[in-house]
Design goal:
The protein has helices at residues 2-35, 43-48, 52-55, 67-74, 96-103, 105-108, 127-136, 152-166. The chain is mostly helical. Bound molecules: heme C (2 copies). The site of one heme C has 19 residues, from helix 2, helix 3 and helix 4.
Length: 200
């Protein structure tokens, strides 16, 4: 009878291992499903008809969300992304170059050299064309509409600034500005206002 017991044990052990593995695999699968969101993420762009930049700070998607993206998620992700009524893109900015850096540089590059958005340097675009592109956006390619996001004066300053770059009349902002050297000195006889830098 011993050999029979032996064969039993011999077939039981692999069965136990297989059952155990199957249970583990199911548990892993359940964990994976419960932590995976219901939608493929870039699909939000298709569903809402909005570019990634509507909801993501990074124009290519992923990473931190914009205010509109956060509002959309908090409203239960409806098919239409709610507008942030009255929220301006560059509140208080009046200089065209400043407005460009705030609202456009993330996509078109600090020097308008092209990044996610196309290069604007020497592109020959007119002020009117730039203005209409800014207002309408290029939704399918990923440029949002800035309708209602600038005051009329800001839009003028921005379009004029971008036009001078696109015509080659003005160079985009430089990489750095020269600064005066620091004025910190360490006197050998320290005063309360000007200590001796602790011997450094
Ligand atoms: C309508 C808003 C919306 C749009 C448009 C959108 N996303 Fe998202 N995306 C989200 C939200 C919200 C999350 C957080 C995960 C979730 O809620 O499912 C997310 C998450 C992601 C993630 C996972 C990493 C992370 O940051 O959580 C990636 C990657 C991503 N999105 C890429 C994209 C890309 C690429 C596009 C454009 C093709 C895009 N998204 C368009 C709202 C959006
Ligand atoms: C989220 C990214 C993004 C932002 C922000 C953005 N753009 Fe764009 N822009 C694009 C993309 C992408 C294109 C290319 C569209 C295409 O090829 O159809 C484009 C195209 C353009 C064009 C048309 C270029 C041409 O040759 O026809 C102009 C002009 C322009 N952008 C100006 C601006 C200005 C000015 C701002 C700031 C107010 C701005 N864009 C902000 C992504 C962006």
């Amino acid at each position: 009878m011993k050999p029979v017991e032996g064969t039993h044990r011999g077939t039981l052990a692999p069965q136990l291992i297989i059952t155990g593995l199957a249970v583990l695999a199911l548990a892993a699968l359940a964990l994976f499903w419960s932590t995976t969101p219901g939608h493929a993420l870039p699909e939000y762009a298709n569903r809402t008809g909005e570019p990634c930049a509507t909801c993501h700070v990074s124009p290519g998607g992923g990473g931190p969300r914009t205010l509109r993206g956060l509002l959309w998620a908090s409203k239960g992700k409806p098919d239409k992304v709610p507008e942030l009524a009255g929220v301006m893109a560059a509140p208080g900015a009046t200089d065209g170059a400043d407005i460009y850096q705030i609202a456009c540089a993330a996509c078109h590059g600090k020097h308008a050299e092209g990044l996610f958005g196309v290069e604007l340097v020497n592109s020959g675009l007119s002020t009117a064309k730039i203005r209409s592109q800014v207002l309408s956006g290029r939704i399918i390619s990923g440029m949002p509409s800035f309708e209602g996001k600038f005051t009329a004066t800001q839009l003028d300053a921005l379009s004029t600034y971008v036009a001078t770059i696109s015509s080659g009349a003005a160079a985009p902002i430089p990489n750095s500005y020269p600064l005066d050297p620091g004025h910190l000195t360490c006197p050998s006889t320290p005063t309360p206002d000007n200590p001796n830098c602790g011997g450094n």
